[in-house]
Fold:
Amino acid sequence: MGKLTFVDEALADLREKGLYNTIRTIESSVGAWVQIEGRRVLNLCSNNYLGFADDQRLRDAAKRAIDEYGVGPAAVRSIAGTMSLHVELERRIARFKGTEAALSVQSGLNTNLSVLPLLLDKDDIVFTDELNHASIIDGVRLTKATRVIYPHRDTETLAKLLEEKRAAAKKLIVTDGVFSMDGDIAPLPKIVDLADAYEAIVMVDDAHGEGVLGSHGRGIVDHFNLHGRVDIECGTMSKAFGVMGGYVAGSAKVIEYLRQRARPFLFSSAATPPDVAACIEAIDILEKSDEPVRRLWENAQFFKSSLKKLGFDTGKSETPIVPVMLGEAETAWSFSKALFARGVFATAIAFPTVPQGKARIRVMMSAGHSRKDLEFAIDAFAQVGRELGAIRA
Structure:
């Protein structure tokens, strides 16, 4: 076992630095409250923005799909795995997003692994925000293109970099729509203007904007009224939609190119019928009513303002992502454990997910939370904050 001693050393180092993550196991459906280790606790961790993960309408849609289509397609989409449900989901995503076409893939991660390597070659340049999600980083690493990282949301520097690389064969700007750790929003209108000026392709990963921003949760492009000006929209069905899967939306020719050549689409089995049917049901609900989105934002505003009044630093969030900034990893982990002891499940986020010294409790709001739930959480944050010296007593 000597050849694996480096693994022991790495794990020991994580424990010594207070960075070892103990993953809790949920023993119930994922809703406003969950059962963990036999206890019922308030869930402030999941990306279940609209409360769809245990919505009865999505449950029923999934059950009906199993009865009609079975539990899985047992093939990749390009050989024998494309079912009528997949085609319907893609049609519904395109209509919801206001694009010509859409492609559904197995996960949000797979969207970036599908698109980025296919669009870029060795003579091309990709401009990527320094705080882009790991899936974008991994997608960029799979390309042969030159990577240019610009400071977070800094469009002035991006403009200078685009000017320096004006002669590149192909230029692509890729950004998160909503940045998942801080909850701030990409300056997409300025990015699109720069892309027009420098003939660059624009790609946005809207994983945390889908179901959150825009009319009825249509996302960041709708939020800024940029329809037709963003070349590629990617996202996931595993957050606000509460299910599983990813999508790419854009022009018909780009989607067809991905259908022909994108490796995750070609070489991984298709999403299962219950997942796909539940995703369609989520879109149905949002097309009919924006009530879940409005409730989400009401909850976020109440919770965020209440924490600020207590003296907590909630960073620069512009969305229902609420980072409670605590500084050092050890403090964040202690805070999380103390909250759990009081019946609140809120996980600490520390290095390497966020920079050193920027550890936090990242609170995720949900339309599924009642005002009573949020008051319970605020009281727990107040108690723990005073005990640990994070706020004044």
DSSP finds 15 helices and 13 strands in the chain.
